[in-house]
């Protein structure tokens, strides 16, 4: 997908806000293509991109603070409509001649906003009083010339302002977050009423154009794809297979840390008896991974070993295949956006199948999904006819069950957790609960405890069941599963899985816990 395919585009300039991805998602949900760029994007590049509208995100700074991130004044006289959100609103006020100050009272959370200008295109069809999400300490104290106030709150006299003649709009609140009652409509009003977009962004056109582009780019060349069986790499592989068929080789490294039967399921879809015209190589590297993990108990050490070993196995396979022209990566848009942002503390070193190997001989990388959000990847997968159970698959981490077994990984423990997890997933599916759960799985604690089975004493492992509700996987709440399901799963696990005599349910949210146990 290139810019030329999206005749109408909204540009989001990122000033370091927490919700920049959400803005882009909300715009795309309105069928308008949208890309996020750093706030340092040059005016020339903006002119080249010729967006229909520009959105300035929130950010942690003060417009008058030292080292404040800013934008050139000329941004507001390009003849392109601009919507400033939170920090973006303050920046607009500041650069257009208004004033921004620290408010005597900060405003955080849900706030009732009063819309004072019923004629504003931005608030078309929005009730006069509505709840918006505020998160600011600074506020616009003096309007720039030619602007007028369009909304206020009890502590924020200019909660929204505009200069419609020049296409400049600003809101102090965050329309992109769910807590703002009519936020999506406000963004829709901006893209349709102000920017005059038509809403032509559709998944079927993405898929067709992506296939054509891949054909053009790859020609008669050969491509190599690391397949994990997860949504992203599967959809990327299918897209490539439709574009170049058997010029594609998919390498699936089975590290022995997959869920029960998962390796065979991936092979059934992509292997010789599957539906796709690709070369499929399955490497059973289980013993190699188990040997490397022997005696290792520290989570980060396990993650690093699994990640590195994965790359080594993949490199060896690539070496045997010989030089390829293109390496396919399942990178998706959140990865692209996140990798462009500042540094944050390393909680876990993530390993993704498709992480870049050093010693694979290829000329270029192709990332056909790099502009799609996860839900768009799923929609593209459906459009391509990828089986539902693959498209709707819950996320599964690159290090697999290796990080769902606390302490040392052994073949016996992998078997226990695979069996317990399969029972759990089966019962969740039977009860139809999976739709509301972001992720659910069984993990193996390193704890053994005393139990009694039949007339004998046992000293066995405890399985922990986890189920979380989340939309972004950055925060999550433990799901309140019905007791009857938990109870049935518990009975089945202790009866059917040898080596387990106790089942626990993890009631912790994220934060303070993380979703995975390691
Ligand atoms: P945590 O445990 O950090 O997980 O709350 C958040 C989400 O990320 C997934 N996860 C990973 N995914 N490679 C991945 O591709 C990894 O190394 C990895 N570690 C965690 C996790 O399953 C959850 O969806």
UniProtKB/TrEMBL annotation:
Residues bound to ATP: 228-234
Any Gene Ontology CC annotation: cytosol
InterPro entries given in the database record: Class_I_gatase-like (IPR029062), GATASE (IPR017926), GMP_synth_C (IPR001674), GMP_synth_GATase (IPR004739), GMP_synthase (IPR022955), GMPS_ATP_PPase_dom (IPR025777), Rossmann-like_a/b/a_fold (IPR014729)
Matching Gene3D superfamilies: 3.30.300.10, 3.40.50.880, HUPs (3.40.50.620)
Subunit structure: Homodimer.
Annotated function: Catalyzes the synthesis of GMP from XMP.
Protein name: GMP synthase [glutamine-hydrolyzing]
């Amino acid at each position: 997908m290139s810019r030329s395919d999206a005749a109408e585009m909204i540009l989001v300039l990122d000033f370091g806000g927490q919700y920049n991805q959400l803005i882009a998602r909300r715009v795309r949900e309105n069928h308008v293509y949208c890309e996020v760029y750093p706030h340092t994007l040059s005016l020339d590049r903006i002119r080249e991109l010729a967006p229909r509208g520009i959105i300035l995100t929130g950010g942690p700074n003060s417009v008058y603070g030292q080292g404040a991130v800013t934008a050139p004044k000329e941004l507001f006289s390009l003849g392109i409509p601009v919507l400033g959100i939170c920090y973006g609103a303050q920046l607009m006020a500041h650069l257009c001649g208004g004033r921004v100050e620290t408010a005597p009272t900060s405003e955080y959370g849900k706030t009732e906003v009063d819309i004072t200008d019923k004629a504003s295109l931005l608030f078309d069809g929005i009730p006069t009083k509505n709840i918006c999400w505020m998160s600011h300490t600074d506020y616009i104290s003096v309007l720039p010339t030619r602007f007028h106030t369009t909304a206020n709150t009890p502590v924020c006299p200019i909660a929204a302002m505009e200069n419609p003649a020049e296409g400049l709009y600003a809101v102090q609140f965050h329309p992109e977050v769910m807590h703002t009652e009519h936020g999506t409509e406000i963004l829709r009003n901006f893209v349709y009423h102000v920017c005059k977009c038509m809403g032509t962004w559709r998944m079927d056109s993405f898929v067709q154009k992506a296939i054509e582009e891949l054909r053009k780019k790859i020609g008669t060349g050969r491509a190599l794809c690391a397949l994990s069986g997860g949504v992203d790499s599967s959809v990327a592989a299918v897209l490539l297979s439709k574009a170049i068929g058997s010029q594609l080789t998919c390498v699936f490294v089975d590290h022995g840390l997959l869920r029960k039967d998962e390796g065979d399921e991936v092979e059934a879809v992509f292997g010789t008896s599957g539906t796709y015209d690709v070369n499929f190589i399955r490497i059973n590297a289980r013993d190699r991974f188990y040997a490397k993990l022997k005696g290792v108990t520290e989570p980060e050490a396990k993650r690093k070993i699994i990640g590195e070993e994965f790359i080594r196995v993949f490199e060896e396979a690539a070496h045997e295949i010989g030089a390829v022209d293109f390496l396919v990566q399942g990178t998706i848009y959140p990865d692209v956006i996140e990798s462009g942002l500042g540094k944050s503390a390393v909680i876990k070193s993530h390993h993704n199948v498709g992480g870049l190997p050093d010693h694979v001989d290829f000329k270029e990388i192709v990332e056909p999904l790099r502009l799609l959000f996860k839900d768009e990847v799923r929609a593209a997968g459906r459009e391509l006819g990828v089986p539902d159970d693959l498209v709707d698959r819950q996320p599964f981490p690159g290090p697999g069950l290796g990080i769902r077994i606390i302490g040392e990984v052994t073949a016996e423990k992998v078997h226990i957790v695979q069996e317990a997890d399969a029972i759990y997933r089966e019962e969740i599916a039977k009860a139809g609960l999976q739709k509301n759960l972001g992720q659910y799985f069984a993990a193996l604690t390193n704890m053994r405890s005393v139990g009694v089975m039949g007339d004998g004493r046992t000293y066995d492992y405890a399985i922990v069941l986890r189920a979380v509700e989340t939309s972004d996987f950055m925060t999550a709440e433990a799901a309140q599963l019905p007791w009857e399901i938990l109870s049935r799963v518990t009975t089945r696990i202790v009866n059917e899985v040898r080596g387990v005599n106790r089942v626990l349910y993890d009631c912790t949210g994220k934060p303070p816990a993380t979703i995975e146990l390691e």
